[in-house]
Amino acid sequence: MTLTTRLKLTLSQVVKPVYGGIGHILMFHRVTPVPPVRVKGQSRLEVTPQRLEEIIHFFQTRNYDFISLDELHTRLINPSGSGGKNRKFVAFTFDDGYVDNLLYAYPLFKRHNVPFAIYVAASFPQREAVLWWYLLDDLILANDLLTFDFFDGPLILETRSDEQKIQAARILRARLKFTSKQQYPTLLDAIFTKHGIDLLAKTEQLTLSWEQIQQLSSDPLVTIGSHSLHHFPLKILSEEDAREEIMASKSLLEQKVGKPVEHFAYPYGEHREAGLREFELARQSGYKTAVTTRFANLFPGHAGHLEALPRFDAPALSDQDWVLAINGLLPLRHNRFKRIVTE
User: Fold this and answer.
1) 0.90 exceeded by pTM
2) Distance (Å, rounded) from C-alpha 61 to C-alpha 116?
3) Residue 115, helix vs strand vs coil
4) For the chain, how many structural domains are there in total?
5) Distance (Å, whole) CA 170 – CA 164
6) Each residue of 171-227: pLDDT tens digit?
């Protein structure tokens, strides 16, 4: 262990009483033995089953309570009514609705008797979602030069070197992520269809069906939450469209699983993608909790911010990072000493 590492671990113990919090929500997307080949530098959505089990073991050895989202809600709003439990807790959550959540994550959680949640974007099981983040990597990796005819003019991108591929991914991801709802279909056509790529090629292969979601929902260990209808950054939508994304997904999921859907995850969930307006819409829609991707621990004060709960991006954390994160050192630095992170 290097001197720098020892100093960080020591400092994390110093700040732990103030910034360690009472628990943590972890964010995952996929669990797969063989992660796909992706453009370098892109957000890692995948962990292996072995890595997931290591993370479970990390919290087991620290005597954490593994809790569901309903129990999380209870502990935040009524700490004294949690049966006298005052140990730290952790909640595992998965975004989007990938089939490997059933194939690889579910057996692990079942073996360890650990509850977990899947926030489903309803367009995934409807087989309407375009998994453009994977399509885009495939397109860039397969070409040395890409030409696009966009509504605001042509774009030519060289994609020969790794650095050029990374830069191309940044440019095209920003367009796809933040384009308007009205221009989104045209943009998909310009980037993918005109390059011979089937927009739904990944959807059937990678996402849960309604039958599989119903199967998971029947197990008390599994909570099905909502992740909007179409996985747009809600902040760029009109208030009417954002409300529809939040409420209609809840209604459709409840119809399909036959039980209340009471927890929500904002698509993307950073400051540019979800803010005070979206938090209020989620609260008005009747969700018990809603989670962001703000990087922070949970504190008793989050009882007043149930529609803006933070999470750790689990695949992004190394072994050393986990200790620094749960002790509060990394969130302290990231949030400039602020504990309750909303805006």
Assistant:
1) yes
2) 19
3) coil
4) 2
5) 10
6) 999 999 999 999 999 999 999 999 999 999 999 999 999 999 999 999 999 999 999
